Amino acid sequence: MSVVEFMQLDLVPMLAAILACVTCGLLGTLLLLTRNSMMGDAISHAVLPGIAAGFWVTGTRASLPMLAGAMGAAVVAVVLIGLIRRLGRLEPGAAMGVVFSGLFALGLLMLVWSGADRVDLDIDCVLYGILETLIWPAAEGPASLIDPVALAALPEELWLLAGMFAVTLTCLLLFWKELRLAAFDPAFGAVIGFDPRPVRALLMLLIAAACVAAFWAVGSILVIAALIGPPAIARLLTERYAAQFLLAAAVGAAIATVGYLAAALVPAALGAAQGFNAAGMIAVMAGLGFALAAQLSPFRRGVVKQRRAAP
Amino acid sequence: MNNTAALPIPALSVRHLTVAYREAPVLWEVGWATPSSGLVAIVGPNGAGKSTLIKACLDLVPRLSGEVRIFGQPLAAVRRRVGYLPQRASVDWDFPATALDVVSMGRYPRAGWLRPLGRFQREAARAALAEVGLADFASRQIGQLSGGQQQRVFLARALALEADLYFMDEPFAGVDAATEKAIVTVLRRLADQGKAVIVVHHDLATAPHYFDHVLLLNLRAIASGPMSSAFTPDNLARAYGGRLSLLDQAVAAAAGAPGAAPRG
Predict the structure, then answer these.
(1) What is the chain A residue with the closest CA to B160?
(2) What is the pLDDT of residues A75-119, one digit of tens each?
(3) What is the pLDDT of residue B3?
(4) Interval A151-186: pLDDT, tens
(5) Domain extent for B115
C-alpha cells in the first residue's frame, strides 16, 4: 500500500476514530466516576430518533440538524428517565432500559419511514458506523496536508468530530473543579453554592453531542465501548484525578489506532479481499485493553472493593 | 416579636417545619431555635428525622411547609457563612482524589465559579488538613485512609469553608478514639471562636459531655435548650418512648451526667 493510498483510504477514518474515542473517553470518565456508566449507553441509543428527525426535516445528511436533533432527543431521554424513576418508583437501570430501548426502536422506525435508509443512513450504518466511507480522494500525498484545496475536500464528519473534541476539551478545562465537585459530592456542592445541576446538564448535553459524533465513527451499538472502555482501563491504572482523564484520552487514541489498523491493514496484508469492520475491531481492542490493564493494575484490590461497594 | 433585633439572633431558627418522604411524615411541625453560638446536639432514636432536619435546613430535601432562617436570613443570603459535613457514607471513597483534593473543595467558594484554585487557596486547604492532624496524608488517595481519617478529611473540608454555622451529620459515627478526640478538640475551638455547630449525635453517653445545647427529636421537637435543663430522663423517655433498652441507656446516661456539660 502506498502513502497516497493510505491517505486517500485510511487516514481520515483513522483520525475520525481517534477523535471520537478520545472525546468519548474524556466524557465517559465523568460517567464512570459517578457510577453512571449506563447513562452513556442510554444516551447513545436514545439520540437515534433525534438524528432521524434531523434527517427528516432537512432531507440531507447534514451534520448540524442531526446534532441538534440528537441533543433534543438526549434531553427528552434524560427527562423521561427521571420521570419514570420517580413515578414508576423503578431503580435507575430499569428506567434507563425502558427509555433507551424504546427510543432506539422509535429511531429505527423513523429511519425507515423517512426514507433515510434508502440514502446512506441505513440500519447497518446506524449499528456499525460509517468509518469506511470517510475517504479523501483529493489526497495526492503528504503535501495535501497543507494544501487548502485538498483540505477543503475532507469529509464534513471529520470537522464535526474535531469540533466536538475542541468543545469537550474547553468545557472540561473551564468546569474542571465544578465537574469534580459535582461528581464527588453533589450535596456538599449544593450547600456551598456550587449547584451540581447545571454542570450535570452540560455533561449530558456534551455526551449527547459526543454520541452523535461517535455514532459516525463506531456506530450506535459500540459507542458504549468508546465511552466506557477507555475510562475503565484508565481507572485500573491510576488513582489520580487528572491522570485518569489523560490516561482515558490516551487509551481512547490507542484503541482507535490499533483497532483501525488491525481492521484495515491486517486483512489486506494477509491478502484477504475485504477488511474487518473497524468499529468492531475498536470495541474488541477496548475489551483486550481492559483485560491487559486488569492484569497490570497495581490497584486490583481497590477495584474489587469498589465493585462490592457499588450501590 | 418586635424586639428580636435587641436579642442575639439565633444561628438557626426553624418554624413549622414538616418534611415527608412519599406519604409518611419524617418531621412534623418542628419549631426550634439554637443559640447564636456554641455546640448543639440533635439527639433522637434511629429514624427520628435528625439527618432529615439538617438536610431540610440546607435545602437538600424538599420541605412540605415551614420556614428556616440562618442568622435571621434565608439560606441563599448567607450561604458563605454556612458549613456542612455530610455523612461519611454519602460519598464514594474510591473516587480518584487525594485528601488535599477533597479538602480543597472547601475553598471553592473563595475561588468562585470557573476560576482555578490559586496557590493561596490550596495552602489554606493544606492548613485545614494540618488542623485535623493529617498534614502528612495530603497526597494520599482517599480510599487508602482509615474511616477515622476519612472523617477528619471531611472535617478539614468543613473547616476550610471558614463558616460561622456548621451542620455536621454524625461526625462521630464509626470513628476511632483518636479521631473522636481530635473532632471534639476542633469543635471546642470552633465554639471558643464564637461559631455555632449543630451536630447530629446518637451516643447518649457522650452527648452531655460534648455539647452545650440539645434538641431531642423524634418526628417532632420533643425538647430543646441548654443541656442541663433539656437533657432530662423525662424528656429522653418521651423522645425514645417505647424502646425500653434504649430508654434504660438514656436514663442511665442522663443520671451519669448530672446537669451541665463539663464546661457549662
Answers:
(1) A192
(2) 899 889 888 888 887 888 888 888 989 999 998 888 888 776 666
(3) 47
(4) 998 988 888 899 999 999 999 999 999 999 999 999
(5) 4-256
DSSP code of residue B73: B
Residue A285 domain boundaries = 3-141+164-300
B27 domain residue, yes or no = yes
The span from the CA of A168 to the CA of B50, in Å, is 41
Please report, in angstroms and rounded to a whole number, the separation of the first and last CA atoms in chain B. Answer: 28
Cβ <8 Å between B109 and A183: no
Contact indicator for A170, A176 with CB cutoff of 8 Å = no
3-state SS string for A185-211: CHHHHHHCCCCHHHHHHHHHHHHHHHH
> A306: which 3 cell numbers?
469498589
Q: What does the pLDDT read at residue B251?
A: 59
Does a structural domain hold residue A306?
no
- Its ipTM equals 0.91
Return the CATH number at B58.
3.40.50.300
Q: Identify which of B31, B5, B34 has the alpha carbon closest to the alpha carbon of residue B18.
A: B31
What is the mean predicted confidence (pLDDT) over B30-55? 95
**B92–chain A Cβ distance below 8 A for any pair:** yes
CATH assignment of the domain containing A236: 1.10.3470.10
| The C-alpha cell that represents B219 in the structure block | 418526628
Q: What are B194's three cell numbers? A: 464564637
User: From CA A100, how far away is CA A41, in angstroms rounded?
Assistant: 8
Q: Other C-beta atoms within 10 Å of B146: how many?
A: 13
Q: What residues have CB less than 8 Å from A115, skipping those under 6 apart?
A: none
- The dihedral through the CA atoms of B226, B76, B172, B105 has a sign that is negative
Which of residues B108 and A62 earns the better pLDDT score?
B108
* CA atoms within 13 A of residue A280's CA, in its CB half-sphere: 9
Q: Considering the domain boundaries, does residue B262 fall inside one?
A: no
Give domain status of residue B261, yes or no.
no
Determine, yes or no, domain membership for A150.
no
Domains: count for chain A: 1
Mean pLDDT check: name the lowest of B7-11, B56-60, B162-166, B182-186.
Answer: B7-11
A positions 229-288 inside 8 Å of B (CB) = 235, 238-241, 243-244
Q: Is B218 helix (H, G, I), strand (E, B) or coil?
A: strand
Instruction: Let me know if residue A264 belongs to a domain.
Output: yes
Size of interface A-B (CB pairs under 8 A): 85
Question: For the packed helices A196-218 and A12-33, what is the interaxial angle rounded to 10 degrees?
Answer: 150
Question: What are the residue ranges of helices labelled H in chain B?
Answer: 50-57, 99-104, 108-111, 119-131, 147-160, 177-192, 207-210, 227-230, 233-239, 244-256
Q: Is residue A237 in a domain?
A: yes
Q: Is residue B264 part of a domain?
A: no
Least Cα separation, residue A241 to chain B (angstroms): 5
Q: Are B83 and B198 in contact (CB under 8 A)?
A: no
Check if the beta carbon of residue A49 is closer than 8 Å to that of residue A103.
yes
User: Given this model, what pLDDT does residue B240 score?
Assistant: 87
Number of domains chain B is built from: 1
| Cβ proximity of B3 and B46 under 8 Å | no
Q: How many Cα atoms are found within 13 Å in the side-chain-facing hemisphere of A129?
A: 32
- B103 and A CB contact within 8 Å: no
Task: Give residue A307's pLDDT.
Answer: 45
